[in-house]
Structures are given as structure tokens and as C-alpha cells.
Fold each of these.
Amino acid sequence: LFTFTGLGFIGLELYLIVKLSLLLGHPSYSLVLVLPLLLIFGGVGNLLAKKFQANSTKVIACVVLTLILYLFFIDNLIVVASPVNFWIRLAIAIPLLVIPSIGAGIIFGICLKIVQSISEKMLPLALAVDGLASVLGGFLFTMVVLSLSYSVGLGMTIIFYLGVLVILRTRNKY
């Protein structure tokens, strides 16, 4: 479960850094925007997780649907928005970042609650698995996008979040 959340989160982070650097016109702008906002709004999502735990399937489906929309439309949005003023592009970039960040945080929080309900002692292990998956996932994502494309990398991220969905659906309680 936490392997998929770690891989999904790092895939989302790296994808957003690259795509928003194209939208904003420079990688520095993207890094300064993505890194803190992804963590802040991921944390907000984590705080909201308890409210959405009963609807975990719907939350994951919304995140997956959002990423599928990004897969098909973000490149066109970047082309259309490129000639406009920087501040307008920034206003476009923020919701593109905030929406999936909150969703990813909710998914992570739901998974934490599930592990907590099974055994408090498993929580450190789950967090370690998530962290390790994020580190190794950064390498994996980079190799995939360099060999294939960023669309394939986002496709992998979608598959990882679908993996979370499958695991949660197989557990009748959740």
C-alpha cells in the first residue's frame, strides 16, 4: 500500500515540476512553487483524510481522473498559456498544483488511518516503506521519462494510485 503511495507521490511531484516549469518559463519558478505547495497542500489533504475515509474509493478515483485529464490536456494548456503574462500563468499553475496535492494527501492520510486501525506498531514500517518508495521512485521516474516520455511517467503515477484503489477495494471494510 505505502509502496504505491510513495511511488505515486514522487511521480506526481516530478511531473508537476517539469510541466509547471514549461508553463512558468523557468525551472526555478517551478521548484519554488511546487516543492512547498505540494507539501503544504498534501498536509492539508492529510488533515482532511478522516472526513473522506468513508469515500476513499471516490477520492482516489477523483485523483486518478484529474491525472488522466492532465495527461491529455496539460500540454495544450501550456501552449495556449505560454504567451500570456507571468502572473496569469502563475494563477493557472497554482490550482493545477493544489488540486492533486490535496488529493494525494487525502489518500496518504486514509492509508495511515488504515494501518493505525490494524496496528500502531506497523506505522513506522509503513512510513519507512513510503519514504523508500519515494526515493527509489524518483530514480525510476527519471529513468522512464528519459527513456520514454513524461506522459508515460504520469501514466505510471496513475497506475500506482490505481494500485492503492485496488488494495483498498479488496479490503471490504474500507
Amino acid sequence: GPARAAARALAAVGAFAILFATALTNDSIADCLAAPKYRPLFIGLAREVERVGVTAGVTLEAFDGFDPAAFLPGAPDAAAHASLDDQVTHNRKSAKTHTGIWRDLAVRRRRTEVDPQIGTIGRLGREAGVPTPAIDALVGLVHDIEDGRRPLSRDTFQRLIDACTSTSPGASRS
């Protein structure tokens, strides 16, 4: 029913936030997700989405290696890393090394669906009083690339890492 569709849509946003982040660089999805130095970013993004979901009272569902329970408030880092490992496994089996988001930015040089797919989380977070600094930074950086203000690069990706690890509460838990 509608509740299940909402849960699946919000779970998808957690995974999409991670996929949008991988599209800021030319590295493959699996290589980004496998890199230990990038993991705090992906965990921080997913945890922001999960905090908004919990506040909204939505129960999220797992798919394609993304386990939303692994990113819930209080979930241990080990669960988040296991979910990222599952996503690496899923993506290594895929013929697509990069997302359609990356193709829109790097090849087609056109606007993405970052506002309806990811920006919505920031809006819902603001309405609920849940900060989403990493999500907001991600949306801003995607727009910077779309508008030609920033290149698609590891430097742009690093800006997102810096925003996530310095401002996102709960970016790392033991």
C-alpha cells in the first residue's frame, strides 16, 4: 500500500544520496564505496536520511545491498560498513560502472534530478527540525557542477567529504 511505497521511496533516497555522492568524481560506484577513506561520507549521508525518516515515522526497506537499519540512529559502524560492503558486491556485478547521475553530469552535461530525489530530504529535515548539512552540501555541489561552477573531480568530492565529516552529527559510531 501507500505506506510501503513511502518506505521504499525513502529507503531509495538513502541509497540515492550515496549514488549522487559517487557521481561527483570519475571513480566507479564500487571503487568509491569500497574506499575506506570515503566511508565516513557515505555513512554520514545515509544517517542524515535515516534521521529524517525516523522523525517522519517511516519504516524503511532494504534493497540492492542498502540496509537502512544499518544507518539508523545508534546503529554501530560495523552494520553500516557491512551494508556498504553489500553495495560494493552488488555494484561489482553490474555492467554499469557509473550511475546515470554521473552520465548526466559528465557525458550529457545536463541537469540531474537532485532536487526532487535528494533536496526533498533537506526540505523535510528543515520542516521537522532535523539538520541535514551533508545532504544540503551534496545538493549544492551537484548544482555547482550542473551550472559549470565546479568540475566533476576528486576535489569536488573532497568538499563533500569535508562538509559531511565536519558538520554531520553521528558521522561515526563505534
Amino acid sequence: VLIGEQQGFASTNNTDPAQLRAIAGAAIANAKLSPPNPNVAIPTSGTLPEDCPTNLVDPDLHNLSIATQKEWLHGMIVEATKDKRFRINEGTSEISGGLSIIANSTGVHRSSTETAATWSLMGMGVEGERITSFDYFSALSRKAHGTAQQIRSSTKEFCERVLKGLKGGPATSY
């Protein structure tokens, strides 16, 4: 709870309405007893530099055909299945465009338009009785040119990392 620059805290694991009202009252009482805290607000940031890019649209990516997108996804599948020990759970490819607006408490500071190609893969390694846990990766490109190769190389790196898990030893934890 904030009362000016005074803040108070209280918590409960009870969801009874009467108990919630009581705990809110306790938070208010705590705030009234607390000294002012000038750092209680989120500070406003400065405006973004004028040379910040505002147009991240790649016309080739914006106009990409579904056939090309399918080719990219097919390339991912081909790369992921080169080693028969890798099993695909799910692979995706998405082409998107959008408008981003950056604002803070003093107003809008910048807007930009963008296109992006994103791809992701989820899978696991299997070798006889050994099985890795499922793992996942995703990546992004803002340009159509070179994306097919980026998809293949990032997929290859991901599959190699997953298959290393078949050897045992330390693993990444999330």
C-alpha cells in the first residue's frame, strides 16, 4: 500500500473476504507508521536517442510467401532429423509485423514498425533406453535474406546440444 511516499506491507494466504479486508487494513496501518521513502516510485526514463531506428520493416520479409515459409520450416525438419536420435515434439515458424510504442509515466517517447521471422523447436534425444528431457529453443531474424541458413544452423546447434544430454553429466536447468 502506498500513502504518499509511505509504504506498508501485509500478507495472508487466506482468501476469505473479511480476512482480506483486515489484511488490507494492516497494510494501511503499516504504511502510516513507515517513514517516507522517496524511492517508492518508478523513476521516469529519459527519451530515447533520436538515432534509434524506428523502421525495422524488411519488405522482403513483409511480403514473404507461405511457400517460402514452408520451405524454411521444411529445412528445419530436415536438419533436425539428420540424426535419427533426435525426436521432434513441435516445430514452428512465424512471420509477423507490428507497431511498437515505448512509453513511460511522462508519455510516449518513440514508436517503431517492425517485421520478424521467428522459429522454434522442441524435442528430445533418444538412444536405446536413454532419453533426454524435452528441450526448447527459439530464434528471431528481422531480415528475409539469410534466414533459411540461420534456421538450419540454429537447429543444428540445438539438436547437437540436446543429443549431448544422452551422454549424461551436468545439464541445463530452467
